[in-house]
Amino acid sequence: MAIRLTTMNKKIGFLFYGILRDNYQGRNRLQDKDFAHCWPNIYRNIVEPYTKENDCNVYISSYNTTQNVHDEMLALINPKKFLYVPKENSTPFTSKINALDLLIGEDLDFIVHTRLDLHFNYPLINNNIDYNKFNFLFKEKNHWNLKYTCDNLYMWPHHMTEKVKSSLLATYKTIRPDTHCTHGLYIKLSEVIDTDSIHIISEDEQLSDVNSFFTICKEELGNNRPGIHPEVIEKFKTFINI
Q1: Closest C-alpha to 236, from 64, 4, 7, 31
Q2: CA gyration radius for the chain?
Q3: Tens digits of per-residue pLDDT, 13-56?
Q4: Distances (CA, A) of 170 to 62, 96, 114, 186, 191
Q5: 21-25 and 30-34 as β-strands: parallel, antiparallel, unpaired?
Q6: Sheet holding 198-206, edge to edge
Q7: Helix spans in the chain (H)
Q8: What is the three-class DSSP state of 193?
Q9: What is the three-class DSSP state of 36?
Q10: Average per-residue pLDDT in the chain?
C-alpha cells in the first residue's frame, strides 16, 4: 500500500531520460530504442495515476534527434520542458544527470526520475512510497553487501534535488575507474542525507533489468528469463535463448 501524500494537489515532476529512438551497438548486441513503443506503458503506470489528484509535469532529457522524432515526441508526450545534447562522446549517465537541470527554477514538491525504456508491471503509485524521503526501489541482488541499489528509478522530495545531483556526480570513478556507477548512489547520498531520510521500497533483493516492478526494453535479455514483460517479448519476437 502506498503512503499517500499528506495533502493532495501536490506538484510532481516526472523526469524521463534516455534515447528517444535509435539503433546502435550495445555491449552485447544491437540496441533498438523507441520511446513510442514504451511510452503508453510508462504513462499508464507512472504518470496517469498521479494526474487524478496532483499537478503533474513531464520533463524529457535525451540526445539530438531528427525533426520527425522530435515532433513525434512532442505530440505523444507533450513535456513541459526538454533538453537534448549531442550523443557523440556521451555516456549512459549523460541524459540521466542532465535531467536534473530541467528542474532549475521549477516549483515542485516531489520528483520521479526514471528511464524512457521501461515496461512496468503495475502502477508505481501502488507501492510503499514515502513522499517525505528519498526512495530507492530495492537492493541490488547479490550486491547489497556493497550497498548497491536499483539505479533505474529514484523518487524524492524536491528540496533534496541539489543533494541528489551532487551525490550522482560523486559516483564518478568511485566504483568503476572511468565512469559513473549509479548503483552506488546510496553510498554517496548517505554522506549528505541522514539514512533515516532514505527509504527502500522493497526489501527483496532484485536485478535492475528484470524484476517485480519493470523490464528494460532490450533484446539482449533473451527469452528464457522469468518475469520479462509481455510487451518486451512481443517487440523482440526474434529473441535468441541467452
Answers
A1: 31
A2: 17
A3: 999 999 999 876 555 566 789 999 999 999 999 999 999 999 99
A4: 21, 14, 19, 11, 10
A5: antiparallel
A6: 81-85, 55-63, 11-17, 110-115, 153-157, 134-140, 198-206
A7: 35-42, 48-51, 67-77, 94-98, 161-169, 185-189, 230-235
A8: coil
A9: helix
A10: 90
User: Which cell goes with 172?
Assistant: 564518478
CB 137 within 8 A of CB 213: yes
Q: Around Cβ 102, how many Cβ atoms within 10 Å?
A: 22
Decide: helix, strand or coil at residue 135.
Answer: strand
What SS3 state is found at 98? helix
Decide if 86 contacts 65 (C-beta within 8 A).
no
Per DSSP, the three-state class of 11 is strand
The string of pLDDT tens digits covering residues 183-235 is 899 999 999 999 999 999 998 999 999 999 999 998 877 666 789 999 999 99
| Cell representation of residue 91 | 555516456
d(CA 46, CA 78): 15
- The whole-model pTM stands at 0.92
Query: Grid coordinates 529514484 are at which residue?
Result: 154
* Residues forming a β-bridge with 21: 34
Q: Give the cell for residue 141.
A: 541482488
Q: Give dist(CA 230, CA 121) in Å, integer.
A: 9
Provide the pairing of β-strand 153-157 with 55-63. Answer: unpaired
Q: For residue 197, give every residue at least 6 positions away whose Cβ sits within 8 Å of its Cβ, in sequence order, or none.
A: 132, 133, 134, 160
Work out the pLDDT band at 4, boundaries 50, 70, 90.
low
CB 48 within 8 A of CB 58: no
Between 90 and 213, name the one with better pLDDT: 213
